[in-house]
# Entry
Amino acid sequence: MNLRQLRYFLSIAELRSFTRAAEVLHIAQPALSRQVRMIEDELGTQLFVRFDRGVTLTEAGELLRDRTSDLLRQFDDLRNDVIAGVDEPRGDLAVGMPPSMREMVTGPLVDAYCRKHSHVTLHIQEGISVDLSKLIQDGKLDCAVIVILSEQPLSKIEPFLKEQLFLVGPRDASLDLDVPVTLEQVSRKPMILTSRPNSLRLVLENALGRDRLPINLVADGNSTEMMIELVAYGLAYSVLPYCAIRSALQRGTLSAAPILDLWIDWGFTTPNHRSVSRARQAFKTLLFELATQRIESKEWASAVLV
# Structure
């Protein structure tokens, strides 16, 4: 096997079609099929099950896909770092970010990174922490910001910052950013929350459970933006970090109050079997610099670097 053959194989596995892969790779389909047969002959096993409308991977094919994806990513990192020399990162970088940080962090971070490092193509994946952690462990992301709830066996997690959670209500609820509320007060409110296994939901449920307090759940969902809209309509209250509600507070559509002793820990996670590329290190540096600026300027209320 060689790297070109493995890239051909991955394209077919991703597109689930020899025909479409041949079009994307600009190679004749018979030649593409011949390259796959060479891999199968070398390994002594079939990699694809062929159907009229496409292909699926065999068990051996799935194993090769999983191992090959990470192998090629490491090779690309090595090649790009050698080409770049000492200074300028280049290549592709796949990063995961929480939806709640989209406006406060992700938007300005991506803008600054792409302007500063024009030879790197960023691939941004938004998602909840459990999903981003799985993508890190599978080698499909180079780094991600997640809520730290437990150790991850196939990844490294570096503490990033702590952020207090807020009780969020409609504007006429008259919650005050300078007047904290207790968990007992939170437990009396009708709630619309993120769905399990979202980390924000788990952090709140664990805290209420420790104090043997009930939760009055009206609805849940997987969209922070939807929850903010429903809270603004007056349907219920929610519990969210400040980074998710800052814009709504500035627009005056919500009110919010910090919850005493209820914090989340954000971490920067990476695969533990992959070397640090210059592109990834540059992303981490900008991430921490931006967070520091936001916190020191008081734009990011109740966040603390750790």
About this structure: The chain has three domains: 3-68, 79-160+267-283, 162-265.
